[in-house]
What does this fold into?
Amino acid sequence: TQLLEQSPQFLSIQEGENLTVYCNSSSVFSSLQWYRQEPGEGPVLLVTVVTGGEVKKLKRLTFQFGDARKDSSLHITAAQPGDTGLYLCAGGSLTNAGKSTFGDGTTLTVKP
Amino acid sequence: DTGVSQDPRHKITKRGQNVTFRCDPISEHNRLYWYRQTLGQGPEFLTYFQNEAQLEKSRLLSDRFSAERPKGSFSTLEIQRTEQGDSAMYLCASSSRVVDGYTFGSGTRLTVV
It folds into this structure.
């Protein structure tokens, strides 16, 4: 069974601060996705990373895939209240092309 | 295309009743997934279709759960003889390739009383 562990589970910061959240596994993934989810809604895809060591930037968000494709991080610069939400990582299996495995997420609260 | 649509958004049912949810995926996507999410947890895989073929079903699903995707278009998820433990958000997602990630619908919130 492939497991993804996300940390921290909860994070509360002030507007303007920087933060990093982590997604770790003992398994290798063919790809890894980050999603953001708001209460009562489905997750929304932010980014997909595929290559070990890959870095992608999306405005103030920077995503990195570990060299061994077992872990990933999401860094937010100058957080804003609109960044508040549940951040989920999901890994695509090398052996099972049919599904992704999700972590339990990091709940981020950015206070104005 | 308006994205992935799920109906209903909310469903309250009495224990023992049957319920059916519908998902309309993005029309170009041949892959369709059902996940279940409870409070404080990430989405948990239930089942996966490629076109009309159901290729995988979670061992967590009991025989009370069944899903169909006739003609490879919309999908339905039925839960028979609902139990309180079935209360959750049921999410449908579609994709064209696994590496591209999923487009999720807004989910159906099921409450079994």
